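Late entry, calcium ion complex.
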Amino acid sequence: MSLLEDNQSTDLEQMVGLSRRGFISAGALCGAALFMGGNLLSRSVLAASVSAGNSKLLGFASIPAATADSISLPPGYKSSVLISWGQPLHKNGPAFDPSGHGSAEQQEVQFGDNNDGMSLFAFPGDDNRALMAINNEYTNYRYLFPHAGMPQSAEEVHKALASEGVSVIEVRRKNGHWQFVQDSRYNRRIHGNSPITLSGPAAGHDLLKTSADPQGTTVLGTFQNCANGQTPWGTYLTCEENFTDCFGSSNTEQKFDAAQKRYGAVATSKEINWHQHDPRFDLAKNPNELNRHGWVVEIDPFDPQSTPVKRTALGRFKHENAALTQTRDGHAVVYMGDDERGEFIYKFVSRDKIDHKNPKANRDLLDHGTLYVAQFDAGDGNADHPKGKGVWVELTHGKNGIDAGSGFADQAEVLINVRLAASVVKATRMDRPEWIVVSPKDGQVYCTLTNNAKRGDDGQPVGGPNPREKNVYGQILRWRTDRDDHGSNTFAWDLFVVAGNPQVHAGTPKGGSSNITPQNMFNSPDGLAFDKAGRLWIQTDGDASNAGDFAGMGNNQMLCADPVTGEIRRFMVGPIGCEVTGISFSPDQKTLFIGIQHPGEFGGSTFPEHLPNGKPRSSVMAITREDGGIVGA
Ligand code: FEO
Ligand code: CA
Ligand code: CA
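Prediction complete; structure with ligand written out below:
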């Protein structure tokens, strides 16, 4: 979801003309540092992690920024639409209705809106057949309804819920092109009205009971599904993010307790008025419904009849994605970010080991384990490339001051209100953690910190991995666990890149770190993925005004980095008003699937069909090389 307010709320600063890096490339600067010493020494020290622009890993030419209503790619690359919002999942299903008059029932059998995180599940032994599970994060009323405004009835709330959640689709490769298989028995929608089971330590807790579900074990729906995870046992994880925006109160004087406030409860919903038409979202009538969202949900894409499961052991917050890896001795590890200004980064370690021989044996693996939160030190304060140490602090009832005295009756309450528990142990308040990924090459973990215009205010100190006051550009953090074991609770961190605009601001911090140049600059890194070769793909969800602090950056885009040299090249630019989010690869790495979310968020786009007066449609795109080679190589 676009959260432009962070950037928009920042005063545009005066143009200061070309900085040094307006005419000296990062590579040239590293060379210059050899001769100049002094305050450029830090840049020469960083030379090992900043490329001279000749990465062997990156085999494509960096492309310029763009503001067109189309997809820009390097020479030798092409893209096509795999599937778009509203496409019927089954034969004879209702076609996309651009008028907006289509019903909720129609949405429930069409590909959902605003696709976000996604994973590809190959069929064993068949390189040309796969399932894809794709999140549908939210909907844009401008295009969902004929009146282009907020829902005006219970039926319209139902339709909005039907457009969100997850789409599972089958894809097949024919003549070198991956295509959506319209009538596959696996095609399925899981949406905001679908029954979902609650499991793990918080299931059945009083705080999760409602009049519609007195047992506290079955929730209606998953919605605001942002990014994702893929388990080694063949299931999909969909992560509920901006759920708090969906609630409001018919009692405009309603007072909220500390936990409700921390999770964003307000009487007047910011941009969604569901509570006015559906009592489920009315905090005056159903206060516990808020506690039943904000979880990671596990789905078996290969069993269309299966009921998805909300895994409460992973904690409740505004989940971005869920990055799976394992400890040296075989326990599952899930890294997760809470995308809110000043919130935290978490790690879950399963109690039991992954059974790689029998996938079904891992069915409830994510129900038992230990949750931790990250604490980062202040680091060495290096302006260009800060680094330091960190620790994982356990969030278990009865440990580290988390107990009845600090407001938690049991572990279920710790998990339901885990933001409060993490504050008890003084976790580090981050610049909006978005995606987290683990390198297939060296096990280092990378996390986008997208932006935080409030850094420096509101008790959020400037320093450590959050080094920039009123941070409108974002940065990418990485850490290496001690002994290269994700089971270790100590690690070393550094900033892989600090985004910025060297054409508008001279030097760090606002000009960005030395691997940012006028040729590759971007803002608000968000989606992240490693391919098999270890290229790091970076997607943006930022300010696409192309003006002020963001002049010259163009539309939202995707870049690709060499994690060893630090070089970053721009690979793709998306259409007007879009966010680029969601990424997966075909098993042979020759097709790259990416998501174009909310093209024309504020109008001005007809992507991808470009029909006269046509509506823009969020879409999954397949990107390939004209010579059939590996993407990025
Ligand atoms: Fe859905 Fe934090 O992005
Ligand atoms: Ca995101
Ligand atoms: Ca974002």
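The chain has one domain: 3-58+108-241+294-625. Will revisit in the morning.
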